[in-house]
Design a protein that fits this description.
By secondary structure, the chain is an all-alpha fold. The protein has four domains: 1-63; 93-154, no CATH class; 214-297, no CATH class; 318-383, no CATH class. It has 17 helices and no strands. The termini are far apart.
């Protein structure tokens, strides 16, 4: 009876399957016996389940259930000698080392995240979470974090500090400074616009203070100078400041004093000169920035200026009048300031005033009558 073409094909396929199975069984038996297996025919493919251990196929000579390696996914057969005990141990050690390294990276990430969460900045750390799966040393996590753009933006003043030869501040130091600056400004009643927080709690107005290494105490001095000694002072002080230093605008007095690029000592000098000039203006006297600064260098304070210019305002007009009457050397505001404030030439100025006083006294003493003499003494005494 003739066999159909379809039946022949079925019988051929069954024969091939039987042949492949026989070759696979032979390879497994050879492996367990510790011998080199005979390479299977080109058409043979050993049946080894994906992920199974070698020892799962047969228990015989050479079977090592505790050291049997797991075939990688996709492996379909044995094409080489069985692994030695040393090789299997090395594989196991490598796997454990990889697991430990992964655990260390995860621990480093968790630590950074916990630290930054204390400042409300956990989102900065979340950006480097991918490093956990990379072959990166845990000690590099903080370094990589500080190289991210969000971190650089949040702690921008550190770059300026380094450029200025200062050390970068830690995150805790940086945020603590911001808090202290804010407390100072609140205590002085400054508008909230000076310390408004932006993205990630960034306070851009404070970056110039941190970059300039301005301490909270210095910031308080600057604000106090602007508020108490200029803004809240008599208007003559503010007028003198604007007259002496035209670059300081009325609306920018506070901003001027808060600018860390302007030295605190220079600001203090200018404000004291304005206070001295304001004291002169308060008595109806004129003065200049150079004269006010000269008085400041001689140690004249704002209070001493107020008292001194009151005396100058009393004696200078009379001295000028008497000098004109008697044809003597001039004695006006400049000479009165020299004498009152103890400036250079104060002794000579004092002698001029004394001579004018004597001339006036002599002129009145020659007149008859008690009334005229009394008037002369009163006038002489006032000068």
């Amino acid at each position: 009876m003739a066999i159909s073409k379809e039946e022949k094909a079925v019988r051929a396929a069954l024969a091939k399957l039987q042949k492949d199975a026989a070759a696979s069984d032979a390879a497994v038996k050879a492996m367990n016996a510790g011998t080199t297996p005979t390479p299977p025919a080109a058409t043979a493919t050993p049946r080894v389940p994906t992920g199974s251990n070698y020892g799962a196929f047969v228990e015989g000579p050479g079977f090592r259930p505790t050291l049997s390696p797991t075939l990688p996914t996709g492996t379909t057969g044995v094409t080489g000698p069985a692994l030695t005990t040393e090789q299997l141990l090395a594989q196991q050690e490598a796997r454990l080392a990889a697991e430990n390294a992964l655990a260390n990276r995860k621990s480093a990430y968790d630590f950074l995240l916990e630290q930054f969460n204390q400042y409300g900045l956990g989102s900065l750390v979340e950006g480097i979470k991918g490093l956990v799966q990379e072959n990166v040393s845990p000690s590099e996590f903080a370094i990589r974090l500080r190289q991210t753009e969000p971190y650089k933006k949040r702690f921008a003043a550190n770059a300026s500090r380094i450029a200025n030869g200062l050390r970068a501040l830690s995150e805790g130091e940086y945020i603590a400074l911001e808090d202290q600056y804010q407390n100072v400004m609140r205590n002085y009643g400054l508008p909230a616009t000076y310390y408004t927080k932006g993205d990630l709690g960034r306070q851009e107005g404070f970056e110039k203070f941190i970059a300039g290494d301005v301490s909270p105490a210095e910031l308080e001095d600057r604000i106090s100078i602007a508020q108490k000694r200029v803004i809240d002072a008599p208007p003559q002080v503010k007028d003198a400041l604007k007259q002496f230093y035209p670059d300081i605008k009325d609306a920018d007095i506070l901003a001027y004093t808060l600018d860390p690029t302007r030295g605190l000592a220079d600001i203090q000098k200018k404000v004291l000169a304005a206070e001295i000039g304001g004291a002169a203006m308060g008595q109806g006297l004129g003065t200049s920035a150079s004269r006010a600064e000269e008085l400041a260098r001689f140690g004249v304070t704002a209070e001493a200026a107020r008292q001194g210019f009151q005396t100058v305002a009393e004696v200078a007009p009379r001295g000028s009048q008497l000098a004109a009457i008697y044809g003597q050397d001039a004695y006006g505001q400049a000479e009165a300031e020299q004498e009152v404030f103890g400036l250079a030439g104060s002794a000579e100025a004092g002698q001029r005033r004394k001579k004018l006083s004597e001339l006036e006294r002599s002129a009145f003493s020659g007149q008859a009558g008690t009334t005229a003499g009394a008037l002369g003494r009163d006038r002489a005494g006032s000068f």
